[in-house]
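#struct-queue
[09:14] JT: dropping the first one here, sequence first, then the structure tokens:
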Amino acid sequence: MQLTPADLATVEAAIHDAELRTRGEIYCVISDESGDYGETPLAWAAGVALLGPAVLLLGGVQVSAPDLFGGWSASQVSEVAEAAARKALIGAILMQAILFVATLLLTAIPPVRRALTPRGFKRERVRRRALEQFAAKNLHLTRERTGVLIFVSFAEHMAELVADEGVAAHVEPRVWDEAMAVLVAGLRRGAPGEGLAAAVRMCGDVLAARFPADPRGNPNELPNAVVVLPRA
């Protein structure tokens, strides 16, 4: 998924039009993915490997000792039982190793890795990346602390909105939910530019209602261009 030049132009025009009506500043950042989720393959590989003994049992592998009443001495029974147990243990270890490697290779495939990563974990990573970009792009330096960051992470089909303290003091977080829902819907149907532009317009409405443009001067403190982060 990516934004075409036409999409970028549409979003930038939406930002320009929205900021004409408000003292707020809307800034958009796009990322292909917010994390590599390297923990996911290791966690799944370890979990599946623990199933090795159970797989052997379900496959019918059994450990048995000879019948003491069949003419076997106690020492013979001990030796045979020990050999059988050792063979079963080696088989379990080999099964666990095979399951670990196979699962690790499978879950290392990016789409599989993302699908197996818990949604809450992905949400936390997207949120953290959004906060990093908020600070990195100096959105906290506007004169009235009215910067609003819309962060989009394509691989996760997730978006985050981070509002500076000047906005957060007057706008409850739930007010942005509808705009974020429209944006995420656009991502899911493969129309990221359309969804992002619609979200920008809706955020502009919220900001205009609470921070209307100053007729004496309404400087544009942040660029309107959409920032597309390079691949890691």
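[09:21] JT: and here's the second one, same format:
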Amino acid sequence: MPAKAIGIRALLVSADIQTIDTLCDYMGKLAMHVDVCSDFASATRKLCHAKYEAIVVDFKETAYALDLLKKSREMTSHKAAVVIAILNGNDEMPAAFRAGASFVLVKPISLAVLMRTLKVSYPLMVNERRRYYRCPVQTPVHVSVGSRPEFVATSVNISELGIALSNSPMLRVGDRVVLRLTLPDPPVSAKISAEVCWCNAAGAAGLQFLEVPLRVREQLIAFLGVRLEESLQEESLVKGSG
């Protein structure tokens, strides 16, 4: 059975209990997974080892907060993440935006402003999640590698950026291949050029897309968007009933 997709993930960097409780409560209502860090060193390590669609940073220690924002924008995986800065006062706004903040909240946090900010920023988080979302899907994939005979593998998951396959023992890292597959509901027929990034002795392989025709890319984005929305709605219902 395919693994359940992980929804929107946020990193909250704060040591203030009230701020943590308030943000976790309201972000939890959107079925977001919130990781809390009370210090900037731990937050930096998390950013290096995990992918977050949102980063929320308390500016109680302004210099460290600005440094973290700048570092996050230098990371390829977090360059487009939604960054919310929690400021001590309005005078910190220019520096926060220069460092890469997408939105700001000023203490004391107004619940009405917090709700509006999350309402506006959440679709951006979903869009960022979709870019990296690996949708579990099993479908036959016809694989052509140069002059070698075409063979049929099975997809494990697919994203905007690539695909994972099983039953593909002939592939080697660095192989340039052409993939032919059809995604279900609604059907999306695709012919995509890709490169093998990793593989193992069990016949599993991960491929990065190289050339995706515009029509196929649009259909793939729509397919992933529908699946991600279904996953997030399911997760929200599960949390709501918990």
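[09:30] RK: nice, looked through the second one.
[09:31] RK: Helices lie at 17-28, 40-49, 62-74, 93-99, 111-132, 214-241.
[09:31] JT: good to know. Residues 9-132 form a domain with the Rossmann fold fold (CATH 3.40.50.2300).
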